[in-house]
Design brief:
The complex is a heterodimer of chains A (about 900) and B (about 110). By secondary structure, chain A is of the alpha+beta class. Helices cover about 50% and strands about 15% of the residues of chain A. In chain A, strands 1, 2, 3, 6, 7, 8, 9, 10, 11, 12 and 13 form an eleven-stranded mixed sheet that branches. Chain A has a six-stranded mixed beta barrel with strand order 16-17-22-19-21-20. The longest helix of chain A is centred in the last third of the chain and has 44 residues. The relative contact order of chain B is 0.16. In chain B, helix 1 crosses helix 2, helix 1 crosses helix 3 and helix 2 crosses helix 3. Classes of the chains: A alpha+beta (about 900), B mainly alpha (about 110). Chains A and B meet through helix 2 and helix 3 of A and helix 2 and helix 3 of B.
């Protein structure tokens, strides 16, 4: 019977070797081999394998188990360490390009991951410095006007805090923070803008802001008292011994300093320079019967440790209604209170009108994902390069085994090498990230300083992570290398197994597919942002200066606005002046309206705002039918109305002169308005939102913003002029303004920053993938030197050689391209769903990304292919 | 008698080895038991039993030449030792003795 028997599957042998004691092994393996052969004959290969696996379980009994020998201690560790490191450095030297690629790829991956780690850590650590963070809750107001959507505001009424503290024993402390008005500080006869809150002493017993001087129990109790941050004290007084001193502020207020507080940490969502006593604010303003419904300030409470937040929330939900229900009824208002736990405010809160900077959990998730991908890419590189080199080291393994080395010893040696490479990469990666930290800060908008980044804890976890990385990435190559049979490596010419080749190709495909996804994401991010920014808003936002008058009461502004307008309209650089209740093209708000022709009491939802007659012409909004408002004097509202195309569509009305003269009754007052004009749709809420049915009416007492179309060459003069006139007419109010186009651009800053970072990381990903490819081609050509030489001798042309050498790698890139397209399509169309108006995912986009991928990979292999085809055949063939 | 206790399975393995004579190695024992008991015995159980019996001194083993058929491994063949023979005889005698004491009517009641 000369037939070669099937040998047992390797993993079964491996299992047996790993747990069965040596003294049983020969008998078991012999019998099992025979048994396996019988099974194959009787039942076929796959059945035999299954049955063999079943019998493997029958060896799972303690009787067979090997007693652990801790062979790690059996060889002299120090000697082996010296020996291994010597071999390791020789290896590094023998293939410098190879080693450099390996280390470079890994260290870039580590640096990038470190940055992402810092970013995510910073985002997650927001507000975590407060000792009582688990017990602090913010009261948010969920309110609903009749027939409009629920709105969640981060602010609440000033009545809430005292009421909660008085009536609910689980509320230990409550504090109010008001910043609707931040008084300017008088310094060297100039008013200076500072961030301030009117607040109460209980702030210090709830939050962990550190009071350096002053009494934390009482410092903000008296009216006209203030606490300064340390840096403000230094800025204005050049000293920290200032308790008892005074300073002046806007509206001829004088504050006495009662304390100094440490600057709020960057990771606080409450940021301030000055804390002013809340009682000051109470003194300044007159009470209002509707205070329960004025959501003006932030309320934070500290509850007792045993309080269940959800249960407590359900009890206070109706607090406003319980106390003010009788007056709310006629208004048709609904108000619920909600709790937002302090640790979730920064990343998760969805409320409008936040107290400070707000992060986004999606961004954190996107970045964590990218970080993982990058590390994965670097790992793949590592595995690829290590297994590709296995042929190189086969002879070494063979000889070592012949002189008595064993598999575990060799495995340990190779693992040691990969861990060592990881640690070198870690050192380089850390140096890189130290150098690039300022760049990262400017790109991400973070302010991470070097000693915050390189904390002992971070370094330790990085060290452990790269140790883990070395073990994970090194395990497979080590296993492959150490299981070479000496006979095969020494006698035959050993070539890499098809399995290893397949693995390498698969990993390469994954790398390039990931790179493709990142390229597509970058392209889509930028195109979408560009699209939003370039998008025709339907009105002219350029050269428009907007003056904010939202601190002034509507009626007094309406009275003075015509005078101010008269005072400035003579200036030739001002081409248009308009007032409106909203920033042009921004802001939501509306209610139910009753258009004619519908059954009685059947209303429709409309958004609306108030604007002066010149609003349409100043912002270049096109009137399609009818006319704009007639200019009128006085502050009386007119009963004329402009509607947009979307309104007509929602009502099923044709765009014709028939529309003019139709009536719509306002839900808020019951007055009936007459349509005098139809204007072309423009983005009246935000470029991101759909255009909704909108009405423009003319109620001067609603005005809060003045929009001015100005001549761009005289911006500075006009601004000075406007401010001078403003101080004549509104002397007690600060002149604050912005340019409309900048206002829109600001909305994109965050997105722009995000996409810039994604772009950088995707370039990095491509780079890592490409150096992997570079290494593999380098290796493949060295293997095929003789083949190329012979081909050249036999007359192969450079072109045909080039084709021969690159087709394999191009096929890999092509497969990656085909695999990456559907994945990136799915991911990107999900992202684009967040926008009402988005770009199309055109095939061109994917081809562009694919072309980029090909270009990069051709670059990676081009020079080597070229030099391989140029080498003199004699150089390759003469030895041996 | 200490050291002569045989489990039921061990007894069967010992008997199978005695029957097989010089062809008594793991797989053959497994097949023999399969034929006799008409029930699949796991090879692991056979190996465990054989080696335990060897430890107890009821079996001794000889190694044959390595063959290709066995993937280059030698075959471990077992022979029953004198102690093994004694143990088998003891069990058989014990049972026989007890059977002999059985009155004729013992199984009548159970049959009803």
């Amino acid at each position: 019977m000369d037939q070669q028997p099937h040998s047992l599957p390797r993993w079964i042998l491996y299992m047996i070797e790993s747990w069965v004691s040596d003294r049983f092994q020969e008998e078991l393996i012999g019998d099992l081999t025979e048994y396996y052969e019988e099974l194959i004959e009787a039942k076929g290969l796959s059945h035999a394998k299954a049955q063999l696996m079943g019998s493997l379980f029958s060896y799972l009994r303690p009787y067979f188990f090997r007693t652990p020998t801790f062979s790690i201690f059996s060889t002299k560790p120090l000697l082996m360490f010296q020996f291994n490191s010597k071999l390791f450095f020789r290896q590094l030297k023998r293939r410098p390009a190879f080693s450099a690629i390996n280390v470079l790829g890994l260290s870039m991956g580590i640096a990038a991951c470190f940055f992402i780690f810092l970013f995510v850590q910073d985002e997650l650590a927001f507000d975590s410095f407060h000792e009582n963070k688990r017990r602090i809750q913010r009261i948010e107001t969920h309110n609903k006007l009749p027939d409009s959507d629920w709105l969640l505001s981060a602010r609440s009424s000033k009545m809430i805090a005292p009421k909660l503290k008085e009536a609910y024993p689980e509320v230990e402390e409550a504090v109010r923070l008001f910043n609707r008005w931040e008084p300017k500080i008088l310094y060297k006869e100039q008013y200076i803008d500072q961030r301030s809150f009117f607040t109460e002493s209980s702030l210090f017993s709830i939050f962990s802001f550190k009071l350096l001087q002053g009494d934390s129990q009482t410092c903000l109790d008296q009216p006209y008292t203030a606490v300064l941050t340390e840096s403000m004290a230094k800025k204005y007084f050049n000293s920290l011994e200032i308790v008892g001193k005074t300073f002046e502020a806007e509206d001829s207020l004088t504050f006495q300093i009662t304390g100094i507080v440490e600057d709020p940490p960057k990771s606080s969502h409450i940021q301030f320079d000055f804390l002013l006593s809340y009682s000051t604010w109470e003194n300044l303003r007159t009470g209002n019967a509707y205070d329960w419904l004025n959501y003006w300030l932030y309320t934070y409470i500290k509850v007792t440790p045993e309080t269940n937040a959800e249960e407590f929330e359900s009890r206070i939900r109706g607090l406003v209604h319980d106390n003010f229900g009788d007056k709310m009824g006629p208004l048709g208002l609904k108000v619920n209170l909600e709790l937002e736990a302090l640790p979730t405010i920064y990343l998760y809160s969805e409320a409008e009108d936040q107290a400070g900077p707000i992060g986004n959990i999606t961004t954190v998730r996107i970045f964590s994902g990218i970080g993982m991908l990058l590390l994965l890419l670097a790992c793949f590189n590592f595995i690829n390069l290590a297994t590709a080199r296995s042929m190189d080291r086969a002879i070494e393994v063979g000889i070592k085994k012949v002189v008595g080395s064993s598999k575990p010893i060799l495995t340990r040696q190779f693992l040691f090498e990969s861990i060592f490479i990881c640690l070198i990469s870690l050192a380089i990666g850390l140096a890189l990230s130290g150098l690039l930290l300022p760049l990262f800060n400017s790109l991400s908008g973070k302010e991470i300083v070097i000693h915050e980044a390189f904390t002992l804890q971070n370094l330790l976890s990085l060290f452990l992570a790269s140790l883990g990385l070395g073990i994970i990435a090194g395990a497979y190559p080590a296993w492959v290398l150490s299981s070479f049979q000496p006979i095969q490596t020494l006698v035959k010419r050993y070539s890499s197994s098809p399995k290893g080749l397949f693995l390498r190709k698969t990993l390469l495909v994954c790398q390039f597919a990931i790179s493709l996804i990142l390229i597509v994401a970058t392209l889509v991010f930028f195109r979408q942002l560009n699209f939003l920014q370039q998008k025709d808003l339907g009105f002219d936002k350029d050269q428009v200066l907007v003056i904010q008058a939202d601190g002034i009461s509507g009626r007094s502004f309406a009275e003075k606005f015509p005078f101010y307008k008269d005072a400035i309209k003579g200036n030739p650089a001002i081409k248009g002046i308009a007032a409106s209740s909203r920033i042009p093209g921004a802001g939501k708000g509306g209610g139910i309206m009753f258009p004619e022709g519908l059954p009685k009491d059947e209303g429709r939802e409309f958004s609306y705002f108030s604007a002066s007659p010149s609003f349409v012409s100043t912002l270049g909004i096109e009137i399609l039918k009818g006319r704009a408002f007639m200019p009128q004097s006085g502050t009386e509202p007119s009963l004329e109305m402009l509607v947009n195309e979307a309104s007509l569509e929602s009502l099923g009305w044709e765009l014709s002169d028939q529309v003019l003269g139709k009536h719509i009754t306002a839900g808020w007052s019951g007055e009936t308005y007459t349509i005098v004009g139809v204007y072309r749709d423009y983005h009246h809420i935000s470029p991101r939102e759909k255009i909704e049915p909108n009405l423009i009416i003319q109620i001067p007492s609603w005005y809060h913003y003045i929009s001015l179309k100005i001549n761009p060459s005289q911006t500075h003069e006009v601004r000075m002029f406007l401010e001078k006139k403003w101080q004549e007419w509104f002397p007690q109010y600060p002149f604050s303004y912005f340019f409309l186009d900048e206002f829109y651009n600001r909305q994109y800053q965050k997105d722009l920053r995000l996409s810039r970072l994604v772009a950088i990381f995707s370039v990095l990903a491509i780079f890592i993938a490409c150096i992997g490819l570079f290494g593999l081609t380098l290796f493949a050509f060295q293997q095929r030197r003789k083949e190329i030489g012979i081909r050249k001798v036999l007359g192969a042309s450079k072109n045909s050689l080039f084709y021969l050498l690159s087709k394999e790698f191009m096929a890999i890139v092509l497969i990656a391209f085909l695999a990456g397209i559907p994945l990136s399509y799915i991911a990107m169309s999900r992202w684009l769903e967040n926008f009402a108006h988005s770009i199309e995912l055109s095939p061109g986009l994917f081809f562009l990304a694919g072309a980029g991928l090909f270009a990069f990979s051709i670059m990676a292999i081009f020079f080597q292919t070229l030099s391989a085809t140029k080498t003199q055949p004699i150089l390759a063939l003469r030895d041996e | 008698m200490k050291g002569t206790q045989l489990g039921e399975f061990e007894e069967l393995v010992l008997l199978a080895i005695a029957i097989l004579q010089d062809q008594a190695y793991g797989l053959a024992i497994k097949h023999k038991l399969h034929d006799e008991l008409n029930k699949n015995i796991s090879i692991g159980a056979v190996h465990a039993a054989c080696n335990r019996l060897e430890d107890k001194g009821f079996l001794q083993a000889t190694w044959t030449e390595a063959t290709k058929k066995r993937g280059g491994k030698r075959k471990k063949c077992y022979q029953v030792t004198l102690a093994g023979q004694r143990a088998l005889e003891y069990v058989r005698d014990l049972r026989q003795n007890m059977w002999n004491q059985l009155p004729g009517s013992s199984f009548q009641i159970a049959k009803d």
